[in-house]
Amino acid sequence: MDRPTRRLPSSVFAYEAGVLTLEGVSLAAIAEAVGTPFYVYSAGRLRERYRALATALAPFDVDIHFAAKANSNRAVLAVLAAEGAGADIVSGGELARALSSGIPAAKVVFSGVGKTEDEIAAALRAGIHQINAESYEELHLIDRIAGELGLVAEVALRINPDVDAETHAKITTGKKDNKFGIDADRLARLDNEVKGLANLKIVGLAMHIGSQILSAKPFLAAYGRIAELTRELRGRGFDIQRLDLGGGFGVPYENELEFSFDDLAAAIRTTVGDLGCRLSVEPGRSLVADAGVLVSRVTLVKDASPMQFAVLDAAMNDLVRPAMYDSHHDIVPVKEPVAGVQAVEYDVVGPICESSDTFAKRRKMPPVAAGDLVVLATAGAYGATMSSTYNSRALIPEVLVDAGRFAVVRRRVTIEEQMGWERLPDWAAAPALSGSRAAE
Ligand SMILES: *Cc1c(COP(=O)(O)O)cnc(C)c1O
């Protein structure tokens, strides 16, 4: 049983009898049962990642709120809920998913720059733990809605600490020019802003500086900043009891070094460790990314010498990360490559009519042929949740594997079903478009 690639965790992936398996289940057998392409997640790996983080943070009074947008399949949420995870949500839809997956409202935190009145009301009615407000305008909105519901909302202020997360520009959120959070220098006005807001209580501060951050250094800077602000606001009479330290802990997709949860713990200890605050973190990617892969079949290999295009049945609508963030995903054959086989260079592409529908350029990998199955590694985060039906493609199945068993946890949503969601306007259904109807 060889390790297929560094990017498939060896605790759950292995070649057995020449076929790639996940927790002992053959990926070829799943493909046979559900068709391709599909996502498959390992419950065992989800638990492993959750426990690794929980163990590293055990010295602190800390809650782990999984950022549901990374993977909001209810079966995935339920595995993490059983481990004790709460949820960080960014929409009313995620609220519904979290609550229906066994995550109690008391473990739900609501973030996001544009929560609507309906979403805020739903969250308050459900009795969630905390709303992270991202602007003074939103504080006023929350206060009004809480007042209408006769409730007092527990609110943390999301601060923009103005630090560089040293990650991809599209996933940086903690710089002054990003849309997220309240600038630290605007806090001077806080006393005025909250005067008269009787239906909310500022219970803490929150931050989230970006995603796919690979070293503890930006966290050290940001947590240090939030510690300063906590002391300052306490000095001004605000009862800051909770600090939400956000997520963004990176994972290796290619050759990056593993993000260290121990370094994170050290950054927490030296910055906010002695403030006596209840802490929380909001990891998304780091819990689910390498627990999931996208399995696809090679439709054909197009010879365009000197180029070889491996055309998959998966496309950018199923996994948009390469097109959107130029991200790397290891691509591994499901059939174990013959030892010592000569690698071939492919452009690995999907069938969609966009040049950006490309999973990998000039990728050296074992030779593949039409009909072969391949795995796109590290696809458990921001994979299925960012998928679409572009080019009128089906939404693909999601499968959960747990100790030798597998279950389809989202079935394929076919184009027939999707067309059933649509209606022709009744005027278009008129037998003859004579032009006289409007005058009738
Ligand atoms: C997206 C997001 C997270 C999770 O980010 P990861 O990089 O997946 O850990 C956490 N908190 C907030 C507010 C977010 O928007």
From TrEMBL:
Cross-referenced Gene3D superfamilies: Alanine racemase, Lyase, Ornithine Decarboxylase, Chain A, domain 1
Catalytic residues in the record: C353 (proton donor)
Cofactor section: pyridoxal 5'-phosphate
EC identifiers of the protein: 4.1.1.20
Domain Orn/DAP/Arg decarboxylase 2 N-terminal: 45-289
Family annotation (Pfam families): Orn_Arg_deC_N (PF02784), Orn_DAP_Arg_deC (PF00278)
Signal peptide start and end residues: none
Pathway(s): Amino-acid biosynthesis; L-lysine biosynthesis via DAP pathway; L-lysine from DL-2,6-diaminopimelate: step 1/1
Catalytic activity, reaction form: meso-2,6-diaminopimelate + H(+) = L-lysine + CO2
Modification sites for N6-(pyridoxal phosphate)lysine: K69
Positions annotated to bind substrate: R285, R321, Y325, E354, Y382
Keywords: Amino-acid biosynthesis, Decarboxylase, Lyase, Lysine biosynthesis, Pyridoxal phosphate
GO function terms (MF aspect): diaminopimelate decarboxylase activity; pyridoxal phosphate binding
Stretches assigned to the Orn/DAP/Arg decarboxylase 2 C-terminal domain: 38-380
Residues that, per the record, bind pyridoxal 5'-phosphate: G248, E282, P283, G284, R285, Y382
GO biological process, one term: lysine biosynthetic process via diaminopimelate
Similarity comment: family membership: Belongs to the Orn/Lys/Arg decarboxylase class-II family. LysA subfamily.
Quaternary structure annotation from Swiss-Prot or TrEMBL: Homodimer.
Role summary: Specifically catalyzes the decarboxylation of meso-diaminopimelate (meso-DAP) to L-lysine.
NCBIfam families tied to this protein: lysA
Name the record gives this protein: Diaminopimelate decarboxylase
Organism, scientific name: Methyloraptor flagellatus
